[in-house]
Design a protein that fits this description.
Elements lengths: L7 E3 L10 H11 L18 H8 L14 H12 L4 E5 L6 H10 L6 E4 L3 H8 L3 E4 L2 H9 L3 E5 L12 E4 L2 H14 L22 E5 L5 H10 E5 L5 H7 L5 E4 L7 H5 L6 E4 L9 H6 L3 E4 L5 H16 L2 H9 L17 E5 L3 H11 L4 E5 L5 H7 L2 E2 L2 H7 L2 E4 L13 H6 L4 E5 L8 H10 L2 E6 L18 E3 L8 H19 L17 H21 L6 E7 L4 H19 L9 H7 L3 E7 L7 E6 L5 E7 L4 E6 L2 E2 L6 E9 L4 H11 L4 E8 L5 E8 L5 H8 L4 E9 L11 H5 L5
Parallel strand pairs: 1-2, 1-4, 2-3, 4-5, 5-6, 7-8, 7-9, 9-10, 10-11, 12-13, 12-15, 13-14, 15-16, 16-17, 17-18, 19-20
Antiparallel strand pairs: 19-21, 21-22, 22-23, 23-24, 25-27, 25-28, 26-27
The structure holds 1,4-dihydronicotinamide adenine dinucleotide and 2-oxo-3-(phosphonooxy)propanoic acid.
1,4-dihydronicotinamide adenine dinucleotide binds next to helix 12 and helix 14.
């Protein structure tokens, strides 16, 4: 039976001892030092002079007066019992000459016997000992271990920075570090304990209602839809402290443009799985950090495009028709028919920068005004320009030839200050500038200056570099019409955005695949079909990690038959994330599966063989001492695991199973049945795969009851059985229950 051996290096100070602050305090008192309390968390790393270290750790020094950490003796004993005394070391950076003091301290505090290594360079020693895991209270040592490929549990209550190595796993105390290690050892031991024998580990022991934080005003119907399935926490996203507190136990966060979702926010949100942007622009969300953390980001592009487009036209017309000033003057009782000089849009040249959803709405509406339309958008096709009736031009040409310029681009490094002093200088005198996109696109200082000079005749601005905008160089200028980022706020837009965001947030929290993800590929398959396929791929990933508990160095996917690339990517991400959940301690989801794999040096490859199968198949293969292989077959309606380690199966794998690899010999099945019978495990079904009589074979037994550890140990003593695994996989989709996939597969494909 393949079994992951954990070889553990435990730090002494701060891990088995209490926090070593008393050491620094003693040195300060006795030697007149000014060491901070954490100096002896890593005294070498903190450059504590050697002479001080020798005194602190030497005979009669303050280290001999330290207390033990709570329950440290009992916890060490459990480690020794579970992992084996030959697999546990205390590895300390105390000076080697202090060995006698340390050993005496351990004895006096009734620690069980454990080997102890003294090393300035802990990693070098750990490598030589074949250490796989470590427990540390020093970030520097933890980082060094991680760099050497050793998973290190770091005792820390600080949140991890998002760029921390996936091999550094923060836990609050020693008990929890050891719990994680023991569960790791148990999970990959000979039998899966009941709680782990699930194909999809639940995040909670008890299913809990989801918690959704809403940080801005959203449509009321959307709110009610969310509240029907989850607990809602309303906050003002501009209040950082409230935001950081609210996200601590949030599953989803719904924001609009005013909430900045930074790395700091993500680091404070360990449970967060979905960030939904109730709108289009996601520039207020740190997408890179969200993706690294495996958090799905959704938005609702297009749902407010008419709103933003109409607002753009409103600003243009307000300027052309002098509406703001004429309104104020008439209200004030002045009848100034000669003062205002409105003009028609007809016959003017309007330049649209960015012809996406909003830009297109603007173009379509402006055509009715009989204007000439120039457009600059290097990312859309000539055909799209033609459809919209817009002449494609380069940016300079656009600037030099328009009466009105309007921006509809996202905020990116490329669009930052696209309209700066140089660009403004290219505009014809008297041009008008409209910005309903993002404040960052226009340099407000340069624009204000051009407006004051009259080079730019007027501007209509809905968005500001910093929002809420309580000050701006544009404030108070007579030829500027300002609105407080309400372009996308029409009733209809809020309703449409709300519907998309509420339904897809709930669907994503249920694990369904949604069409509006920003950091996962768009899916060309209907969501329910893709969900079933990715659930089975998830199960295949889980199975392959049960078969191969040590993280492999390659994860190769072969896609046979006609399969769209986005479907293959979803399947790969599902299988890989599920396997990585067992191969690493990182929080892995399909969103960050490839990133985590790359960080762990796991080479992921996807090969397409479209000539091969009429019925699509996805094969997952990992390397290792004995490479393993799992194949999912997909009839475009249902999917099932139909092959394990190149043995074909009659029925798809599902339910609680015992899988054995053995030599095909008479009597083996009977012997297993007898053992399971003795332990009162009921066998619900069986299938055997073999290549030739008497050769290598695989047997899958579906069982109704959990298999006790002792039963599996007995099964492993049966001659000719080489490996045995217990695994649980999801049942087939309800409509397929009881119907072998083979039958479904024989139907013609769609
Ligand atoms: N004022 C408001 O309330 C609203 C503002 N917006 C903002 O309007 C902008 C456009 O939104 P959508 O049309 O929904 O986005 P979109 O993604 O549909 O369209 C953006 C277009 O800009 C183009 N583009 C990107 N970089 C460019 C560059 N360097 N030069 C020229 N074109 C470039 C893209 O090819 C794309 O066609 C975004 O900044 C969005 O946040 C959107 C809705 C409401
Ligand atoms: O959808 C967008 O990109 C918008 O700019 C609208 O932002 P808001 O939701 O009104 O804060």
């Amino acid at each position: 039976m393949e079994k992951l051996t954990i070889r553990l290096a435990l730090d002494l100070d701060g891990v088995l001892t209490e926090h070593p602050a008393p050491l620094a305090q003693a040195a300060n008192r006795a030697l007149g030092m000014q060491l901070p309390d954490h100096a002896f968390v890593d005294s070498a790393g903190c450059n504590v002079p050697d002479a001080v270290r020798e005194w602190v750790y030497g005979p009669g020094g303050p280290a001999s007066l330290l207390e033990a950490a709570p329950r440290a003796q009992e916890l060490l004993q459990r480690l020794l019992d579970t992992l084996g005394a030959e697999n546990v070391w205390i590895v300390t950076a105390r000076p080697a000459r202090s060995r006698a003091v340390a050993e005496d301290w351990l004895r006096r505090h009734r620690f069980p016997a454990c080997r102890i290594e003294f090393a300035d360079d802990k990693v070098e020693v750990a490598r030589a000992l074949g250490v796989t895991h470590a427990i540390e209270d020093s970030l520097r040592h933890a980082t060094c271990y991680a760099r050497a490929g050793i998973t290190c549990f770091l005792l820390s209550s600080e949140p991890a920075p998002a760029d921390e190595s996936p091999l550094v796993v923060r836990v609050p105390d020693l008990a929890q570090a050891i719990e994680r290690i023991l569960s790791l050892a148990g999970e990959i031991g000979p039998v899966l304990p009941q709680a782990n024998a699930r194909w999809h580990e639940p995040e909670d022991a008890e299913p809990r209602r989801r918690r959704i934080v809403i940080s801005d005003l959203i449509d009321e119907k959307a709110r009610q839809r969310l509240a029907a399935e989850a607990d809602i926490v309303d906050i003002d996203g501009r209040d950082r402290a409230a935001l950081l507190k609210a996200v601590q136990d949030a599953d989803a966060l719904i924001v609009r443009s005013e909430t900045l979702v930074t790395r700091e926010v993500l680091a404070a949100a360990p449970r967060l799985r979905v960030i939904a942007r109730a709108g289009s622009g996601v520039d207020n969300i740190d997408l890179e950090a969200a993706t690294q953390a495996g958090i799905l980001v959704l938005n609702a592009p297009g749902a407010n495009a008419v709103s933003a487009g109409e607002h753009t036209i409103a600003l243009m017309l307000a300027i052309a028709r002098c509406v703001p000033e004429a309104n104020a003057s008439t209200h004030a009782g002045r009848w100034e028919r000669k003062r205002f000089k409105p003009f028609d849009l007809k016959g003017k040249t309007v330049g649209i920068v960015g012809l996406g959803r909003v830009g297109s709405v603007v173009a379509q509406r402006l055509r009715a005004f009989e204007v000439r339309l120039l457009g600059y958008d290097p990312y859309i096709t000539r055909e799209r320009f033609a459809q919209l009736g817009v002449e494609p031009v380069d940016y300079e040409t656009l600037l030099e030839n328009v009466d009105i310029i309007t921006f509809h681009v996202p905020a990116t490094p490329e669009t930052h200050h696209m309209l700066d002093a140089d660009a403004i200088a290219r505009l014809r005198p008297g041009a008008i500038v409209i910005n309903c996109a993002r404040g960052e696109v226009v340099d407000p200082v340069a624009l204000a200056e051009a407006l004051q000079r009259g080079h730019v005749a007027a501007a209509g601005i809905d968005v500001f570099p910093e929002e809420p905008a309580y000050a701006s160089p544009l404030f108070g200028l007579p030829n500027v019409v300002l609105t407080p980022h309400i372009g996308g706020s029409s009733r209809e837009a809020l309703e449409a955005v709300g519907e998309i965001i509420s339904t897809t947030t709930l669907a994503a929290l249920r694990g369904e695949i949604v069409p509006n993800a920003v950091n996962l590929p768009a899916a060309s398959l209907r969501a329910p079909e893709l969900l079933r396929l990715t659930q089975v791929a998830d199960a295949a990933g889980h199975l392959i990690a049960v078969l191969q508990p040590n993280r492999p160095s390659t994860f190769a996917v072969t896609v046979r038959g006609q399969v769209a690339p986005d479907v293959a990517e979803h399947v790969t991400a599902a299988a890989l994330s599920s396997a990585l959940r067992r191969w690493s301690d990182r929080r892995v989801t399909p969103v960050n599966a490839r990133l985590v794999a790359a960080e762990l040096n796991l080479l992921v490859s996807v090969r397409f063989d479209s000539s091969a199968a009429a019925i699509p198949e996805f094969s997952f293969e990992v390397d290792g001492e004995s490479p393993h292989h799992v194949t999912v077959r997909w009839d475009r309606k249902d999917a099932g695991i139909m092959e394990v380690d190149r043995f074909s199966l009659e029925r798809p794998l599902a339910g609680h199973m015992l899988i054995t690899h053995h030599r095909d010999r008479p009597g083996i099945v009977g012997q297993i049945g007898t053992i399971l019978g003795r332990y009162e495990v009921n066998i619900a079904g069986m299938q055997v795969g073999r290549h030739q009589r008497g050769g290598e074979a695989i047997m899958v037994l579906n069982v109704d009851d959990p298999i006790p550890e002792e039963a599996l140990a007995e099964i492993l003593t049966i001659p000719h059985i080489s490996t045995a695994y217990v695994v649980s996989l999801p049942e087939p989709a309800p409509q397929m229950a009881g119907r072998p996939v083979r039958a479904a597969l024989s139907q013609p494909a769609d």
